[in-house]
Design a protein that fits this description.
Layout lengths: L13 H23 L13 H20 L16 E4 L21 E6 L12 E5 L11 H12 L5 E5 L13 H15 L7 E6 L1 H15 L9 E5 L12 H4 L11 H11 L23 E7 L5 H13 L5 E6 L6 H8 L2 H17 L7
Parallel strand pairs: 3-4, 3-5, 5-6, 6-7, 7-8
Antiparallel strand pairs: 1-2, 2-4
Helix pairs in contact: 1-2, 2-7, 3-9, 4-5, 9-10
């Protein structure tokens, strides 16, 4: 399923021409919506503010054209603006990669990661760490300030924990399809263990595609319990649990929440076609966990927006996991928000709602003996 053909928009000058068109179209569409949404009754939902209505459409349009162009996120191993908070993480020992994590075409490699709000110092035995995996349909985003600064601050401003957000490899780059991101998640988790942080002081977190990756890492721990210990807790924010339904427009355009979300079918299709390798099905449990619940010794907290496209499938996934004997699962539906407010709630105008969800997440961590609230 991995896309390897050269597309029309990959060639110049057509790519440059299309970029100019995309900018002009976005400006025109945004101007139209700036007028259109002045009357509250014309907004996507009766509870939404003017800002929320306009920003949802601006982001929808932006992501559509980014997916059409297939704009890559450059990942470097240089500190840049993050300075001493940026670290590099070497591959874990080869013995930690087994089964699904082994692919002769995809070899573990060194990646970058960013600490929030400050770097971990070896020997700080009291530190708890949230290993956070960012969203972006596996095609865009990284662990640096621009993409993970807001979400990380939601957690660190409410607790004494630190956050480590890795720049896992993106499927929009050549030869970085599955299991590249899983290999990087394994390496990052092992890195935390290797610098002296016990698993009892590590929580796993992920938003959107990062939530999908967090579930894959958790499943890997379940399938290989002699390799890696269970983390203390897991936070999932709008996790992408049905990657196998991300191909084509039907499942998105016919969704009851399609008008109140910014995720387009083209954006999801970009993720699926580049992330899923040719020798795997998109329905594989490691790629689409929705209908593949598993026994989990770690407590899960799951958040989803009541107005997002993934609402129904996330609720179904939570229930399926809860139905497995011994699993501890807590679901929170934030009623009037769209997708992944943990990542960009501040930009969308859902900062208050994102803060409320962060309060609930930190309380969940407290209840599971993980972190002390400020």
């Amino acid at each position: 399923m991995q896309a390897s053909e050269v597309r029309f928009l990959d060639r110049q000058p057509w790519r440059a021409i299309y970029v100019v068109y995309a900018i002009a179209a976005t400006l025109s569409y945004t101007t139209l919506n700036a007028v259109r949404f002045i009357p509250p009754q014309l907004r996507q939902h009766q509870s939404w503010t003017y800002r929320q209505a306009v920003m949802n459409e601006l982001l929808r349009c932006t992501l559509y054209y980014i997916a059409a162009i297939r704009l890559r996120t450059p990942l470097t191993l240089m500190p840049e603006a993050e300075r001493d908070r940026f670290v590099t993480i070497a591959p874990a020992s080869q013995s930690l990669y087994e089964g699904i994590a082994v692919n002769p075409e995809i070899q573990p490699t060194t990646i970058g990661a960013t600490w929030y709000p400050k770097p971990y110092r070896t020997g700080d035995a009291s530190s708890t760490v949230v290993l956070h995996l960012h969203g972006g349909a596996y095609t865009m985003g990284q662990g640096r300030n621009a993409d993970c600064g807001y979400g990380s601050s939601l957690l660190t401003s409410r607790s004494t924990t630190r956050v480590l957000a890795p720049n896992y490899r993106l499927s929009s780059s050549p030869q970085c399809h599955f299991p590249a991101a899983l290999q990087d998640a394994i390496a990052t988790y092992h890195h935390l263990l290797s610098i002296g942080i016990p698993a009892s002081q590590i929580a796993l977190s992920g938003d959107s595609a990062g939530g999908n990756l967090a579930i894959a890492l958790l499943r890997y721990v379940a399938d290989h319990q002699t390799l890696l210990p269970w983390p203390a807790a897991v936070l999932l924010w709008s996790p992408w649990v049905n990657v196998d339904c991300g191909i084509g427009a039907a499942s998105f355009d016919s969704n009851a929440n399609s008008k109140t979300d910014y995720i387009s079918s083209l954006f999801a299709d970009w993720g699926v076609t580049t992330f899923v390798p040719d020798d795997m099905q998109a329905s594989d449990p490691y790629i689409s966990p929705l209908r593949h619940p598993f026994a989990c010794k770690t407590a899960l907290w799951i958040q989803v927006g009541g107005l997002e496209i993934l609402h129904d499938v996330v609720v179904e996934f939570a229930q399926r996991m809860k139905d497995v004997s011994g699993n501890k699962v807590q679901l929170h539906v934030e009623p009037h928000v769209n997708h992944d407010i943990f990542l960009i709630g501040d930009k969308l105008g859902f900062g208050k709602e994102a803060s409320r969800c962060a309060d609930l997440a930190c309380s969940f961590l407290d209840e599971n003996g993980f972190v002390s609230r400020i």
